[in-house]
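Just scan my protein:

——
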Amino acid sequence: MIKFFRNIRQTLIMENKTANYLKYAIGEIVLVVIGILMALGINSWYNARQIKAGNKIYLTKMLDDLDTTIKRLSFIVYDKKGELREAGFSSLQEAASACDSLLKLTYSGLNENNFNYVISARIHSGNSLLNVSDYTYTEMLNTGRLYTLQSDTLTKGIIQYYKFCERENLYNMNNSDQVDSGYNKFEDSFGKLYMDYLLNRDGFNLRDYTFYFDRHSKEYNDFQIGLGLMSGGQRANMSKMIEVIKRSENLKTLIQIYLDNND
């Protein structure tokens, strides 16, 4: 093909047909430009398809991350099968409720009849952190892939979701510190009572722990304050996790709409 055009060009020059040669040269330039534009267009189309296919893979992985987060946080908040209880802790829902019930009981006065409940109430959830699954988001952000989605709504939604989770994680740690602070408040009194009962039941005598019956003792008051702190911290964490679950579901919906519209 190149040889064919070269022969035409040489023939026109030899026949001294300058005007025709100029027309031919311009036409040849136009053809070359058109060829380049077509090649660039094809290359751009191919790259766009590659990016689109890659984004679909990334977003599908992000859906898996969101499912992992929803499943984990739902387990921590509710644990309907009692698996956490078997491991020595409780769901946030159960722990916060137990703290509230026990605290209410202390205002009626503790006695030997309710000791079994006091000793068995599951008041601690284990201070589980959010640990939101953000592997795909981090990779998309670091590689710039997040900004190739061509959807401002989705890009903004993803960024806002993970920024929200990052902020909530800090609150979650503060709330967990509050729970620990609450437990530490009565660790040397009621906490020691718990331990003695569990490890030395044969030699255990509740009457040896006079503070248990004294609503005005420091140990008793510390127990109430500690329960209040634990309840507040665990309820705050429960509220945060439920909100993360809700926002995770919303982001899943947003991603799925995008994927359905870009098949």
Summary: Residues 54-261 form one domain. Residues 18-77 form the longest helix (60 residues).
